[in-house]
Design goal:
alpha/beta; TIM Barrel; 7-stranded parallel beta sheet; two-stranded antiparallel ribbon; globular
Length: 356
Protein backbone atom coordinates (compact mmCIF):
# COMPACT_ATOMS: atom_id res chain seq x y z
CA UNK A 1 0.00 0.00 0.00
CA UNK A 2 1.06 3.58 -0.65
CA UNK A 3 1.41 5.87 2.32
CA UNK A 4 -1.08 8.70 2.44
CA UNK A 5 1.83 11.02 3.14
CA UNK A 6 3.80 9.97 0.06
CA UNK A 7 4.39 12.76 -2.41
CA UNK A 8 3.69 11.17 -5.76
CA UNK A 9 4.51 14.36 -7.63
CA UNK A 10 8.01 14.57 -6.19
CA UNK A 11 8.55 10.87 -6.91
CA UNK A 12 7.39 11.33 -10.50
CA UNK A 13 9.49 14.44 -11.07
CA UNK A 14 12.63 12.82 -9.65
CA UNK A 15 12.17 9.87 -11.98
CA UNK A 16 11.76 12.28 -14.91
CA UNK A 17 15.03 13.96 -13.94
CA UNK A 18 16.89 10.63 -13.62
CA UNK A 19 17.37 11.20 -9.90
CA UNK A 20 17.37 8.34 -7.37
CA UNK A 21 13.91 7.23 -6.20
CA UNK A 22 12.78 4.70 -3.62
CA UNK A 23 10.51 3.04 -6.21
CA UNK A 24 9.27 3.58 -9.73
CA UNK A 25 6.19 5.74 -10.32
CA UNK A 26 3.43 4.04 -12.30
CA UNK A 27 0.63 5.22 -14.54
CA UNK A 28 -1.11 3.73 -17.59
CA UNK A 29 -1.68 5.26 -21.01
CA UNK A 30 -5.44 5.56 -21.69
CA UNK A 31 -5.99 4.79 -18.02
CA UNK A 32 -9.28 6.70 -18.04
CA UNK A 33 -11.49 4.71 -20.34
CA UNK A 34 -13.64 1.81 -21.38
CA UNK A 35 -12.14 -0.92 -19.20
CA UNK A 36 -13.42 0.88 -16.08
CA UNK A 37 -17.09 0.40 -15.08
CA UNK A 38 -16.98 3.88 -13.53
CA UNK A 39 -16.10 5.37 -16.91
CA UNK A 40 -18.75 3.32 -18.68
CA UNK A 41 -21.37 4.70 -16.30
CA UNK A 42 -20.45 8.27 -17.27
CA UNK A 43 -20.17 7.41 -20.95
CA UNK A 44 -23.66 5.91 -20.93
CA UNK A 45 -25.03 9.39 -20.23
CA UNK A 46 -22.68 11.58 -22.26
CA UNK A 47 -20.97 11.55 -25.65
CA UNK A 48 -17.21 11.26 -25.86
CA UNK A 49 -16.75 14.87 -26.95
CA UNK A 50 -19.20 16.09 -24.31
CA UNK A 51 -16.97 14.52 -21.66
CA UNK A 52 -13.87 16.07 -23.23
CA UNK A 53 -15.43 19.53 -23.36
CA UNK A 54 -17.16 19.56 -19.97
CA UNK A 55 -14.53 20.25 -17.29
CA UNK A 56 -16.48 18.60 -14.47
CA UNK A 57 -16.93 15.40 -16.51
CA UNK A 58 -13.38 15.39 -17.83
CA UNK A 59 -12.01 15.85 -14.32
CA UNK A 60 -14.23 13.08 -12.96
CA UNK A 61 -13.15 10.44 -15.48
CA UNK A 62 -9.52 11.61 -15.25
CA UNK A 63 -9.57 10.96 -11.51
CA UNK A 64 -11.25 7.55 -11.68
CA UNK A 65 -7.99 5.57 -12.26
CA UNK A 66 -6.37 7.41 -9.35
CA UNK A 67 -9.22 6.38 -7.05
CA UNK A 68 -9.67 2.84 -8.40
CA UNK A 69 -6.10 1.80 -9.27
CA UNK A 70 -3.96 4.10 -7.15
CA UNK A 71 -1.84 5.27 -10.09
CA UNK A 72 0.90 7.81 -9.40
CA UNK A 73 -0.15 10.39 -12.01
CA UNK A 74 -3.41 11.65 -13.46
CA UNK A 75 -3.55 12.45 -17.17
CA UNK A 76 -6.30 14.82 -18.24
CA UNK A 77 -9.09 13.17 -20.22
CA UNK A 78 -9.16 14.73 -23.66
CA UNK A 79 -8.37 13.83 -27.27
CA UNK A 80 -5.42 14.56 -29.53
CA UNK A 81 -7.76 15.87 -32.26
CA UNK A 82 -8.99 18.78 -30.14
CA UNK A 83 -6.19 20.86 -31.66
CA UNK A 84 -7.28 19.99 -35.20
CA UNK A 85 -10.82 21.08 -34.39
CA UNK A 86 -9.56 24.33 -32.86
CA UNK A 87 -7.60 24.97 -36.07
CA UNK A 88 -10.84 24.82 -38.04
CA UNK A 89 -11.55 21.17 -38.88
CA UNK A 90 -15.01 19.87 -37.87
CA UNK A 91 -14.58 16.88 -35.54
CA UNK A 92 -16.95 14.02 -34.83
CA UNK A 93 -16.20 10.96 -32.69
CA UNK A 94 -18.70 8.17 -33.40
CA UNK A 95 -18.16 4.68 -31.99
CA UNK A 96 -16.42 3.70 -35.22
CA UNK A 97 -13.64 6.22 -34.58
CA UNK A 98 -12.89 9.93 -34.97
CA UNK A 99 -13.62 11.76 -38.21
CA UNK A 100 -12.21 15.11 -39.30
CA UNK A 101 -14.23 16.67 -42.11
CA UNK A 102 -12.57 18.36 -45.09
CA UNK A 103 -9.17 16.61 -45.00
CA UNK A 104 -6.13 18.84 -45.54
CA UNK A 105 -4.55 17.83 -48.85
CA UNK A 106 -3.51 20.98 -50.68
CA UNK A 107 -1.95 24.38 -50.03
CA UNK A 108 -5.23 26.34 -49.72
CA UNK A 109 -6.43 23.86 -47.09
CA UNK A 110 -3.18 24.17 -45.10
CA UNK A 111 -3.31 27.95 -45.21
CA UNK A 112 -6.98 27.96 -44.21
CA UNK A 113 -6.04 26.41 -40.88
CA UNK A 114 -6.04 29.14 -38.29
CA UNK A 115 -4.14 29.95 -35.13
CA UNK A 116 -6.25 29.78 -32.03
CA UNK A 117 -6.26 31.12 -28.51
CA UNK A 118 -6.08 28.08 -26.18
CA UNK A 119 -7.74 29.93 -23.32
CA UNK A 120 -10.69 30.97 -25.44
CA UNK A 121 -11.17 28.05 -27.85
CA UNK A 122 -9.88 25.09 -25.81
CA UNK A 123 -10.24 26.58 -22.35
CA UNK A 124 -12.22 23.53 -21.22
CA UNK A 125 -8.94 21.55 -21.17
CA UNK A 126 -7.26 24.03 -18.84
CA UNK A 127 -10.38 24.19 -16.68
CA UNK A 128 -10.39 20.39 -16.37
CA UNK A 129 -6.72 20.42 -15.33
CA UNK A 130 -7.44 23.02 -12.67
CA UNK A 131 -10.29 20.92 -11.29
CA UNK A 132 -8.11 17.78 -11.26
CA UNK A 133 -5.32 19.62 -9.45
CA UNK A 134 -7.76 20.92 -6.86
CA UNK A 135 -9.32 17.50 -6.27
CA UNK A 136 -6.09 15.46 -6.28
CA UNK A 137 -4.08 17.93 -4.24
CA UNK A 138 -0.53 19.25 -4.56
CA UNK A 139 1.17 15.88 -4.07
CA UNK A 140 -0.26 14.26 -7.22
CA UNK A 141 1.15 15.11 -10.68
CA UNK A 142 -1.29 15.97 -13.45
CA UNK A 143 -0.16 15.31 -17.01
CA UNK A 144 -1.25 17.36 -20.02
CA UNK A 145 -0.84 16.14 -23.56
CA UNK A 146 -1.17 16.70 -27.28
CA UNK A 147 -0.39 14.91 -30.52
CA UNK A 148 3.08 15.22 -32.00
CA UNK A 149 3.06 17.15 -35.31
CA UNK A 150 3.37 14.16 -37.65
CA UNK A 151 0.68 12.18 -35.88
CA UNK A 152 -1.80 15.06 -35.91
CA UNK A 153 -0.94 15.74 -39.54
CA UNK A 154 -1.76 12.13 -40.41
CA UNK A 155 -5.27 12.48 -39.03
CA UNK A 156 -5.76 15.89 -40.65
CA UNK A 157 -4.63 14.63 -44.05
CA UNK A 158 -6.52 11.32 -43.94
CA UNK A 159 -9.68 12.63 -42.27
CA UNK A 160 -10.00 9.27 -40.58
CA UNK A 161 -7.77 6.21 -40.40
CA UNK A 162 -8.35 2.49 -40.36
CA UNK A 163 -4.77 1.44 -39.75
CA UNK A 164 -3.11 3.04 -42.78
CA UNK A 165 -2.13 6.53 -43.86
CA UNK A 166 -1.59 6.54 -47.66
CA UNK A 167 -2.42 10.20 -48.25
CA UNK A 168 -0.10 11.40 -45.48
CA UNK A 169 2.77 9.31 -46.76
CA UNK A 170 2.04 10.49 -50.28
CA UNK A 171 2.24 14.15 -49.24
CA UNK A 172 5.65 13.62 -47.63
CA UNK A 173 7.05 12.10 -50.79
CA UNK A 174 5.36 14.11 -53.54
CA UNK A 175 4.85 17.50 -51.84
CA UNK A 176 7.49 17.76 -49.09
CA UNK A 177 7.28 21.54 -48.79
CA UNK A 178 3.52 21.38 -48.29
CA UNK A 179 4.02 18.74 -45.61
CA UNK A 180 6.62 20.91 -43.86
CA UNK A 181 4.31 23.93 -43.89
CA UNK A 182 1.55 21.85 -42.31
CA UNK A 183 3.87 20.37 -39.69
CA UNK A 184 5.21 23.81 -38.80
CA UNK A 185 1.70 25.22 -38.42
CA UNK A 186 0.69 22.31 -36.19
CA UNK A 187 3.83 22.71 -34.07
CA UNK A 188 3.16 26.37 -33.41
CA UNK A 189 -0.44 25.72 -32.39
CA UNK A 190 0.54 22.74 -30.24
CA UNK A 191 3.21 24.69 -28.39
CA UNK A 192 0.68 27.32 -27.31
CA UNK A 193 -1.87 24.63 -26.43
CA UNK A 194 0.57 22.80 -24.15
CA UNK A 195 1.77 26.03 -22.57
CA UNK A 196 -1.83 26.77 -21.59
CA UNK A 197 -2.04 23.33 -19.97
CA UNK A 198 1.13 24.03 -17.99
CA UNK A 199 -0.24 27.37 -16.85
CA UNK A 200 -3.40 25.56 -15.71
CA UNK A 201 -1.31 23.32 -13.44
CA UNK A 202 0.03 20.40 -15.50
CA UNK A 203 3.17 19.03 -13.82
CA UNK A 204 4.34 17.38 -17.05
CA UNK A 205 3.26 17.26 -20.70
CA UNK A 206 3.41 14.41 -23.18
CA UNK A 207 3.44 14.35 -26.96
CA UNK A 208 1.92 11.26 -28.55
CA UNK A 209 3.59 10.26 -31.83
CA UNK A 210 1.48 7.23 -32.62
CA UNK A 211 2.36 7.20 -36.32
CA UNK A 212 6.12 7.75 -35.93
CA UNK A 213 6.78 4.11 -36.75
CA UNK A 214 5.48 4.71 -40.27
CA UNK A 215 8.45 6.99 -40.98
CA UNK A 216 11.83 5.80 -42.16
CA UNK A 217 14.72 7.13 -40.09
CA UNK A 218 15.65 9.70 -42.74
CA UNK A 219 12.01 10.82 -42.98
CA UNK A 220 11.74 11.25 -39.23
CA UNK A 221 14.88 13.37 -39.16
CA UNK A 222 13.84 15.39 -42.20
CA UNK A 223 10.22 16.07 -41.30
CA UNK A 224 9.30 15.31 -37.68
CA UNK A 225 12.32 16.00 -35.53
CA UNK A 226 12.52 19.77 -36.05
CA UNK A 227 8.83 20.59 -35.33
CA UNK A 228 8.98 18.34 -32.27
CA UNK A 229 12.10 20.15 -31.09
CA UNK A 230 10.36 23.47 -31.68
CA UNK A 231 7.46 22.50 -29.41
CA UNK A 232 9.71 21.28 -26.61
CA UNK A 233 12.07 24.25 -26.93
CA UNK A 234 9.14 26.65 -26.60
CA UNK A 235 8.23 24.97 -23.31
CA UNK A 236 11.74 24.88 -21.87
CA UNK A 237 11.27 27.94 -19.67
CA UNK A 238 8.35 26.26 -17.90
CA UNK A 239 10.70 23.70 -16.31
CA UNK A 240 8.08 20.92 -16.42
CA UNK A 241 9.21 17.51 -17.74
CA UNK A 242 8.53 16.96 -21.43
CA UNK A 243 7.63 13.38 -22.39
CA UNK A 244 7.68 12.01 -25.93
CA UNK A 245 5.84 8.80 -26.75
CA UNK A 246 6.82 7.28 -30.06
CA UNK A 247 5.27 4.08 -31.36
CA UNK A 248 7.78 2.12 -33.40
CA UNK A 249 10.49 3.78 -31.34
CA UNK A 250 13.51 1.56 -31.84
CA UNK A 251 14.62 2.87 -35.21
CA UNK A 252 14.36 6.47 -34.04
CA UNK A 253 16.03 6.24 -30.63
CA UNK A 254 19.02 8.45 -31.42
CA UNK A 255 16.77 11.10 -32.95
CA UNK A 256 14.25 10.92 -30.12
CA UNK A 257 17.08 11.61 -27.69
CA UNK A 258 17.72 14.89 -29.55
CA UNK A 259 14.07 15.99 -29.39
CA UNK A 260 14.42 17.96 -26.16
CA UNK A 261 12.31 15.48 -24.17
CA UNK A 262 13.41 14.64 -20.63
CA UNK A 263 11.49 11.35 -20.86
CA UNK A 264 11.15 8.96 -23.79
CA UNK A 265 8.07 6.75 -23.63
CA UNK A 266 8.59 3.67 -25.80
CA UNK A 267 6.64 0.68 -27.04
CA UNK A 268 7.25 -2.97 -26.16
CA UNK A 269 9.54 -3.55 -29.15
CA UNK A 270 12.24 -1.45 -27.47
CA UNK A 271 14.72 -3.23 -25.23
CA UNK A 272 14.86 -0.92 -22.19
CA UNK A 273 18.23 -2.23 -21.04
CA UNK A 274 19.70 -1.45 -24.46
CA UNK A 275 18.01 1.96 -24.48
CA UNK A 276 19.41 2.74 -21.03
CA UNK A 277 22.88 1.69 -22.17
CA UNK A 278 22.73 3.91 -25.25
CA UNK A 279 21.15 6.90 -23.51
CA UNK A 280 23.13 6.45 -20.29
CA UNK A 281 21.51 8.67 -17.65
CA UNK A 282 20.73 11.60 -19.95
CA UNK A 283 17.06 10.76 -20.58
CA UNK A 284 14.47 8.96 -18.47
CA UNK A 285 12.44 6.09 -19.90
CA UNK A 286 8.73 5.36 -19.68
CA UNK A 287 7.04 2.07 -20.49
CA UNK A 288 6.98 -0.46 -21.92
CA UNK A 289 4.82 -3.52 -21.11
CA UNK A 290 2.78 -4.92 -23.99
CA UNK A 291 -0.90 -4.06 -23.25
CA UNK A 292 -1.92 -7.57 -24.31
CA UNK A 293 -0.11 -9.00 -21.29
CA UNK A 294 -2.76 -7.38 -19.10
CA UNK A 295 -5.32 -9.70 -20.71
CA UNK A 296 -3.62 -12.73 -19.11
CA UNK A 297 -3.33 -13.80 -15.49
CA UNK A 298 -2.47 -11.50 -12.60
CA UNK A 299 0.73 -13.51 -12.07
CA UNK A 300 1.77 -12.84 -15.68
CA UNK A 301 1.05 -9.13 -15.20
CA UNK A 302 3.18 -8.95 -12.07
CA UNK A 303 6.02 -10.85 -13.70
CA UNK A 304 5.98 -8.55 -16.73
CA UNK A 305 6.06 -5.43 -14.58
CA UNK A 306 8.95 -6.78 -12.53
CA UNK A 307 10.90 -7.87 -15.61
CA UNK A 308 10.45 -4.43 -17.18
CA UNK A 309 11.74 -2.65 -14.08
CA UNK A 310 14.74 -4.96 -13.93
CA UNK A 311 15.79 -3.77 -17.37
CA UNK A 312 16.45 -0.29 -16.03
CA UNK A 313 17.09 -1.15 -12.39
CA UNK A 314 14.20 1.19 -11.67
CA UNK A 315 16.42 4.21 -12.27
CA UNK A 316 15.03 7.06 -14.35
CA UNK A 317 12.07 4.83 -15.14
CA UNK A 318 8.31 5.46 -15.10
CA UNK A 319 6.49 2.16 -15.39
CA UNK A 320 3.77 2.22 -18.02
CA UNK A 321 2.47 0.24 -20.97
CA UNK A 322 3.96 0.43 -24.43
CA UNK A 323 0.64 1.79 -25.74
CA UNK A 324 -2.87 2.36 -24.43
CA UNK A 325 -4.60 -0.12 -22.13
CA UNK A 326 -7.04 -2.34 -24.04
CA UNK A 327 -10.80 -1.96 -23.41
CA UNK A 328 -11.20 -5.64 -22.41
CA UNK A 329 -8.53 -5.48 -19.70
CA UNK A 330 -9.79 -6.81 -16.34
CA UNK A 331 -9.67 -4.11 -13.68
CA UNK A 332 -7.99 -6.61 -11.32
CA UNK A 333 -5.12 -6.93 -13.79
CA UNK A 334 -4.74 -3.16 -14.05
CA UNK A 335 -4.57 -3.02 -10.26
CA UNK A 336 -2.02 -5.85 -10.23
CA UNK A 337 0.14 -3.95 -12.71
CA UNK A 338 0.13 -0.76 -10.64
CA UNK A 339 0.76 -2.60 -7.38
CA UNK A 340 3.59 -4.66 -8.88
CA UNK A 341 5.36 -1.53 -9.97
CA UNK A 342 4.86 0.28 -6.71
CA UNK A 343 6.19 -2.60 -4.61
CA UNK A 344 8.99 -3.84 -6.88
CA UNK A 345 12.53 -3.65 -5.49
CA UNK A 346 14.88 -1.43 -7.46
CA UNK A 347 18.64 -1.14 -7.71
CA UNK A 348 20.36 1.09 -5.16
CA UNK A 349 21.88 4.21 -6.68
CA UNK A 350 24.34 6.67 -5.29
CA UNK A 351 23.36 10.33 -5.33
CA UNK A 352 25.33 10.71 -8.54
CA UNK A 353 22.76 8.44 -10.15
CA UNK A 354 25.29 5.71 -10.92
CA UNK A 355 24.56 2.14 -9.92
CA UNK A 356 26.29 0.84 -6.81
Amino acid sequence: MISAAENRKELFLRACRCEPTERVPVWIMRQAGRYLPEYQAVRAKHSFLEICKTPDLSAEVSLQPFRVLGVDAVIVFSDILIVAEAMGMPLDVPDSGPVLSNPVRDLPAVRALHDFDPERETGFVGDAIRKICEAAGPSVPVIGFAAAPWTLACYMIEGQTRGNIPHAKGMLRSEPQLARELLDKIAQATARYLQAQIEAGAAAVQLFDTWAGELEAREYDSFELEPTQMIFDSLSKSSVPRILFSKGSARHLASLARSGAEVLSVDWNMDLAEARRKLEDRVALQGNVNPEILLGSEAEVRDAAQATIEQTGGFGHILNLGHGILPTTPVANAKAFVNAGQTAPIAVRAQTGRAE
